[in-house]
Amino acid sequence: MSFPVFDLAAFEAARQDERHDMASDLDRICRDTGFLVLQGHGVDQSVIDAVWTAADAFFQQDLAQKQAVAPPYQGYPYGYLGPDAEALARSKGEETPPDLKESFNGGPLRVPVNASDEAMAFCYQPTLWPDLPGFRAAWEAYYAAMEALAARIMRAFALALKLPEDHFDRFIGDPISALRALHYPATVDVPLDRQQRAGAHTDYGSLTILLPQPGRQGLQVKQGDTWVDVPAPDGAFVINIGDLMARWTADRWVSTLHRVVAIPDQPARQSLAFFHQPDWDAEIVPLDGSDAYPPVRSGPYLMQKFQATGV
After folding, report:
1. H-assigned helices in 135-224
2. CATH numeric code, 23-307
């Protein structure tokens, strides 16, 4: 397949007829593949460079230093997850060996004053910061940039769905998004049966903003019976639809199965994934008014999905 590309800056600057055509193209992409390369994102390169440097410094530490910010108990959503800690394919009901990866995870930068006890106990738990100079500042700057970019993408999504541009704004005033830095160590031995760097899964929320390491392959999407490589171009993000957006659109848009494949003799690979999630109490009901899915609250839905992937 020719991988779809969408230029957000061009869309935002377009006049009415051209914007309408671009919105139709975006709708088609989200119906056909649920994945696209995003150009014209406007995120400052210095912000990107700083978070790459911070993530690399974190993963270069020895295991004991990384384990200093490991979750304090099973189910805590943030901090360092080492090898053998997660099997993403289990969220789809497939029993597999643990994924060949490690990650650092952080949550929202702010807590709303009216946050419920349930939300406080899960998505508003504190991020566990490593003792690395400049790490937190670089991480928070990138998180803020991703939150702003996600809001712009959601406005483009609204127009693609023939809704008012601000339709989703009221659902994402206090999003419970998470940022994950991922490191896939070099593979030397043959992986175990059905073991991947990240097992086949769909993402949980409204959309994901992925920053792959430029030029490093491994991410694949399922198209029919075929696994298709996703490009990793310099200066662009990869965007994909999550399960919650598929529900929201009554499956007009697809949350596509994807994985990070493991084969012998692969070099190490890093990526950054921002998982955009509407407000904890946002009620997600099919936009077409159908009963294709029962209403769900964003936060409890996310929590249930998250808890299904642990090892």
Report:
1. 135-160
2. 2.60.120.330
